[in-house]
Amino acid sequence: MTARTIGQASIAKVEELCAAGFKPNRMFPRFNQEAFDAHKHWMVPEHVEAGSDRLVGSLHTWIVRTPRHTILIDTCLGNHKTRSAPAWNNLDTPFLERLRAAGVPPESVDMVMCTHLHVDHVGWNTKLENGRWVPTFPNARYLFARKEYAHWEDERRHKTGEEVNGGSFDDSVLPVVEARQAVFVDIDHQPDSLLTIRDAPGHTPGSITIHLADGGQEAVFSGDIMHHPIQVYYPEWSSQFCWDQDMSARSRRQVLEHCAEHRSLLCPAHFPGANAGYIHRERDAFRIEWDRR
């Protein structure tokens, strides 16, 4: 896949894992089989596993290069971390080698931005070094939405480390704060002249979207506002992992409406294959036009 361009900026994806996971009736509490079946003809096999209906999902990092900065958006699961899901436990993937092959050695990263602080979006924030978790990207500022961090910090006061995001707050977020590389930002913050942080609560209390705009073009990094492209067609289908189902649906619709109105490239966190696209209105919902670069 070649890098996409937005004005003077470029976008590339580095994948950690891609596999079939949950069945849709488990993933989406408002699931409707007939509605799902109406779209299977284009979802199989790229987005839905043939024969099982299990949803195919990708874990990847977005590399954004602007004239001033090299930025990573979301950092997947990470290696050597104890996780309750067997497929995510104690991984040993060549993710950093893939980053280097894409021209991004860890030392070159200026910023790490997390759309929210769930386990599969913060993992490579840190690496294991001499028995300690240390920031993987030594020269980077790690930008955490202030409201999002405050929510998990409050949970940490009342629970053990293993109970807060499956242990990821302790091994993938707090070490960054302790190393003084964390920066807590508010909505509408612009860490780069081409980037703006927007509020998109619902999946978590402080989840955000990140907008990259230049030269009359825009890309929107939506995090987990959408897990699967079926949600473009049924925006009311929030995932079982959403903190507030209705709020997440409202945020999802707002993002889709924005992308349709501004001809923005939607760049989600978990779409596999042709993993980004342009949104078009279609009656009361939307459809996606894949960008297969």
UniProtKB/TrEMBL annotation:
One of the record's GO molecular function terms: hydrolase activity
InterPro entries: MBL_superfamily_lactonases, Metallo-B-lactamas, RibonucZ/Hydroxyglut_hydro
Chain ranges of the Metallo-beta-lactamase domain: 58-270
Claim: Zinc is one of the keywords in the record: yes
CDD domains: metallo-hydrolase-like_MBL-fold
UniProtKB keywords: Hydrolase, Metal-binding, Zinc
Pfam families for this protein: Lactamase_B (PF00753)
Family: Belongs to the metallo-beta-lactamase superfamily.
Protein name (Swiss-Prot/TrEMBL): MBL fold metallo-hydrolase
Species assigned in the record: Vineibacter terrae
